[in-house]
Amino acid sequence: MAAILHGVRVLDLTTIVAGPYATMLLADLGAEIIKVEAPGGDAYRSAKPTIQRGVGAPFVGVNRGKRSVGIDLKTPGGQTVLARLASRCDVVVSNMRPAAATRLGVDAQALQAHNPQLIHCSSTGFGSDGPDAELPAYDDVIQGRAGLSSLLGFDRSAPVLAPTVMADKVTGLHVTQAVLAALYHRERTGEALVVEVPMLETVTSFVMAEHMGGAAMEPPIGPVGYNRLLTPNRRPFATTDGHVVILPYTSRHWAALLDWIEAADADPAGAWAAATWITDADERAGRVGELYGMLGDLLRTRSSEEWITVLRELDIPAGHVNSLAEVFNDPHLAALGFFERTETVYGTVVSPRHPVRYAGEAQPHPGPPPLPGQDTADLLAEIGFDEQAITGLLTDRAVWGS
After folding, report:
1. HSE (CB half, 13 Å, CA atoms) of 131?
2. pLDDT in tens, 72-102
3. Please, is 179 exposed, middle or buried when counting C-beta atoms within 10 Å of its C-beta (0-12, 13-18, 19+)?
4. Cβ atoms within 10 Å of 267's Cβ, excluding its own
5. Distance (Å, rounded) from C-alpha 24 to C-alpha 30?
């Protein structure tokens, strides 16, 4: 199947994770991504472990399938190159704060002056207005401000940060969605939109979707938070040889589990038989902490494999708890060939493929991530600069390349 976004060209003015993750997903769908890098390259290139100078493994995880052009936007020559690139692109994605974007000529007004059909999408910590618009923000800051770190540490002595750049990647997913919606809108109406995806608002929306709790009404009808998710007994459950995750959710699930417990004589103390409230959804919701505690006691009586076999027979959602290393050997992912291997100039790169399938097929692999500035000369030639002009731009350090 042909790449869905073939022919769409995106000017990528983003760094670190949120923006690059979004533009990588667009690259997965076939868009041409032109990654503009300031002198020295994207700061995320140095994140460890390093494959080679300028290519760290975390950078590889959010930059596959892109072309890299080195431009110093603080120079007149760099601005000339930027203008010409903008005039030939469909979308620009930026994560510069408003004042910096205006100063460097990458704000919507400046770039759409070169190309009225250019969709402009910006994603910053706090958007373009409000009291914190010019504050810097990274993933950790947004996890804290959006309530995520307190949520993750609700049953501990202090807030904790998720050991994944969750705020950045959630924002990146919204950036991708916003760009696709804007492309569709332009196709229908001819209008090129200016789009904002503020990190704090995006992640707050993500967290509060189920955690509004009683605050979903005015006046509040109860405390903030979703009770089932906030019980300390909700966790991976220990077995005799490891851990499993299990979620009987519907009354049918619980009835099936109760029938099995009775048939298997797995309730010697009669605790499950006495809990007649389990099959009533309202009572179950009010006593979910107690219920999860009972599950924990039950699951400690058998091995992980025994429980997975039983629960699958009952059609109750359950699974092994994989370590990060074990994920690579998960039999389902392995059967699908989910982790792809790509030969590059810096060795064999292993990465998860794009997870969405269209008409039953995965999108073609977009290629490896670029070396810093590796496509500078080729891209300048493609947008009309002759060899003498390119040499002049390199000499003036308006552009750079590897």
Report:
1. 0
2. 999 999 999 999 999 999 999 999 999 999 9
3. buried
4. 16
5. 10
Helix axes 166-189, 199-211, angle to 10 degrees: 100
* Alpha-carbon gap, residue 247 to 268, rounded angstroms: 23
- Two tokens at 222? 């109860």
Checking phi first, is residue 190 left (phi over 0); if not, alpha (psi -120 to 50) or beta?
left
* DSSP designation for 1: -
Helix, strand, coil content of the chain in percent (nearest 5): 45, 15, 40
Q: What is the largest CA-CA distance in the chain?
A: 87
Over the stretch 328-355, which tens digit does the pLDDT of each residue have?
A: 999 999 999 999 999 998 899 999 999 9
Q: In what order do the strands lie in the sheet with 399-400?
A: 194-196, 119-122, 91-94, 9-13, 32-37, 66-71, 399-400
Active site residue ranges: 168
* 19 neighbors 94 (Cβ within 8 angstroms): yes
Taking the alpha carbons at both ends of the chain, their separation in whole angstroms is 34
CB 14 within 8 A of CB 94: yes
Burial tier of 402 (Cβ tally within 10 Å: 0-12, 13-18, 19+) = middle
